DNA sequence: ATGCCGGGTCCTACCCGA
């Protein structure tokens, strides 16, 4: 099983990049974030000839997530369970495929909207932990992947790339990410690469890419049964060097069949 | 230096990202 997650920063701008990457990498499942289009406008047909079917959860202009998969899958949730019914932010999709539950998410950044915006991020993370705990009660393997907007530890942010008060590194944010790990989930990239930065994002500004001032904020978390079979987990840095790239690169995790 | 770039949209100056 090869699972990938990629914040594409507008699927309409990045459809050729995604197509080319799918042809090269051939993941079984690709989770997309920041599609920045409404659900009905997602260009599902652009990936069909490559063997992928698509489901999107979108909204106008902001956020938006999607799943591309080569095998049949069923969408089980189109919003994070526990959020208010009137929360219209498109940040969550949950599917079942091949006996595995897969969550694709775009976690709130938490830097806009002042303390209320940060509180929304923390509340979202609390609900995610509740959902993860509930799913881990089942025997079904679980993968949670996406743009978490969290640098879990100092190694995950280039020195000077962020203020210590940034929502991506604040202690309250990191504590909630650790809670996910303490539930029994494994951070796939960090598990296989304990010492290297393994950035997944470089800002468009200030020469962040040529200076390698990156962040590791896109993650794949695996339940114990999947983590035991993990064979590879890495960001695909080459994507950041292409023409008109997203500011994020795909993060890919592979494990052996159970 | 919260602007530098690059998406988006009430079409064009402004919001948002991280």
Description:
The chain is globular. The protein contains five helices and 14 strands. It is 23% helix and 26% strand. It has a single domain (2-255), classed as Endonuclease/exonuclease/phosphatase (Deoxyribonuclease I, Chain A, 4-Layer Sandwich), CATH 3.60.10. The protein has helices at residues 11-25, 114-137, 171-182, 188-192, 224-227, and strands at residues 2-7, 29-33, 53-57, 65-69, 74-77, 92-97, 100-106, 142-147, 186-187, 201-202, 214-215, 218-222, 230-235, 251-255. It is α+β, with helices and mostly antiparallel strands. Strands 3-4-2-1-14-13 form a six-stranded mixed sheet. Helix 2 (114-137) runs parallel beside helix 3 (171-182). Strand 3 and strand 4 (65-69) form a beta hairpin. The protein binds one DNA strand of 18 nucleotides through loops.
Inertia-based shape: globular
Low-confidence regions = none
The named CATH superfamily:
Endonuclease/exonuclease/phosphatase
Structural class: alpha+beta
User: How many domains?
Assistant: 1
Taking the alpha carbons of the first and last residues, their distance comes to 9 Å
